[in-house]
Amino acid sequence: MFSYDPYAELATLRSFAPLALTSTDIAEGQPLPLAQWGSAGGGSDTSPQLSWSGAPEGTRSYAVSCFDPDAPTGAGYWHWAVYDVPADVTSFATGEAGRTPGITLRNEAGVPGYIGAGPPPGTGVHRYFFVVDALDVEHLDITSDATPSILGFQRHFHSLARGILVATATAD
């Protein structure tokens, strides 16, 4: 596990109100259940249940993502990215990735939806940052073929509040 926390670094650039983010499937700082692993690691690529609350006034949509900053790529690994989630949606059910309200971008595997954890042997403990941002716009000015990094750039400037839930996984 690297010491770098991309979301802590982003918070030094501008402040975000807190957004409560919980899950019935994953717990803060705990290993991901096998269901949330990728098929190569014995899992089923099942997206976790997520619920969020406490969005501030002016919230017009949400963006949801899962990012592994510990992937041995130099740039991390995006497992999931959804944007333009309507403001009245405050949860995703277990396994709902690919069918969620909003626009789902392609993950690092090139597939729109959630791809589970798959940390390579010898790379230690990986952190999986599940992040929900309450946004001040109904629609972000990006296309459905944009990368999750472009989504991250856009959401940074439109976020009113952010909730983060970090789970872990290791093949070691």
UniProtKB/TrEMBL annotation:
One Pfam family cited in the UniProt record for this chain: PBP
Database matches in CDD domains: PEBP_bact_arch
Coiled-coil boundaries: none
Family: Belongs to the UPF0098 family.
Organism for this UniProt entry: Microbacterium barkeri
Protein name: PBP family phospholipid-binding protein
UniProt-annotated stretches for the region Disordered: 32-55
Gene3D superfamilies per record: PEBP-like
